[in-house]
Each structure stands twice: as C-alpha cells, then as structure tokens.
Amino acid sequence: METANVEYASPGIRLGSYFLEGVLMICTLGIGWLLWALTTAGNGQTPAKKLLSLTYLTPVIEHHFD
To answer: How many domains does the chain have?
Structure first.
C-alpha cells in the first residue's frame, strides 16, 4: 500500500475555515456559496477550503479476510 505525503491542517486552521465558511455564506447570501460549493465539492473542498488550499481526504481502510 502506497501512502501519500500528506500535511495535516492544524486545529486552528480548521476552526478558521469554519469561521470563513460562515462569513462567505453571509456575504453571498447563501446562493453564491451554494453555487460555489457545487463547483468545488468534487475535489473534496468547500469555498473556504478552496481559498485556504485545504482538501478533505477520506481515509482508506483495507480489510483482509483469511
């Protein structure tokens, strides 16, 4: 199994992204945010994560049954 070189965001950065998400929702009246989110969702991002260059990765768990 090959692992990627991943750098995890600090809790402060993640908290800041949630705050930025709220600000963006308010500033775009929700409609702009929703359209923006639809275009970035395929990459594992929300609008705030896109601005902060963050990506959500789903952990892959391999099960071996003998």
So the answer is: 1
